[in-house]
Amino acid sequence: MRVTLLAIDVAVNILQSVEIVVSLGCDRILTSGGEATALEGTLMIRKMIEHTAGRITIVPGKKNHC
Predict the structure, then answer these.
(1) In 3-state terms, what secondary structure has residue 7?
(2) CA–CA dist 27, 38 (Å, integer)
(3) Are 51 and 15 within 8 A, CB to CB?
């Protein structure tokens, strides 16, 4: 299993970067959608899931500060 851990969140173009990660054969991307928390990044996470159409698993997550 190859997982990309939050690196995608600092990309200039997240969806383009997702394509690169898919082409490298990774299985999952852990992401907060480019935001401080996954909740704040919900819209981008949804776009990532729709864009990849099942080719990779998008795992929402990032530590929430309570």
Answers:
(1) helix
(2) 19
(3) yes
